[in-house]
Amino acid sequence: MKINETGRVGALNNYQRHIETQRQDSDRKARRKDEVSISTEAMELLKAREMAQDPRRLERIEELKSQVSSSMYHVDAGKLAEKLVPYFKSYTQSGDQS
C-alpha cells in the first residue's frame, strides 16, 4: 500500500490554526470594547477633589477665612522667606544655564 500526499494533514492543520487565530482575534476585539482608561490628569483631579473634601482641610480653610475677615491673619515673614528662597535659587540657577 502506498500513501500519497502526506502534506494534506499539514494543510488541514494550517486551516484549523487560521480559523482559531481569527476566532481569538475576534474575541480580543470584543473584549477591548469594554475597556476603560483614566488619564493621569483625571486621576490628579480625583485626588484633588478628595483632598478638598478632607474635613481637617475644610476646617483649616474656614479658620483662615475667619482670620482674614477679622484682620487677625498674620503672615510670618520668616516662614515666607524660607519658602521663597529655594524658588529663587532654582530660578537663578536655571537662568545661568541658558
Automatic annotation (TrEMBL):
Query: Which residue stretches belong to region Disordered?
Result: 1-36
Per UniProt, the keywords (alphabetical) are: Cell projection, Cilium, Flagellum
Q: Which residues form the Anti-sigma-28 factor FlgM C-terminal domain?
A: 34-85
Matching SUPFAM superfamilies: Anti-sigma factor FlgM
Tell me one Pfam family matched here: FlgM
Where does this protein have compositionally biased stretches of type Basic and acidic residues?
17-36
The name this protein carries in UniProt is Flagellar biosynthesis anti-sigma factor FlgM
Give the originating organism. Paenibacillus lentus
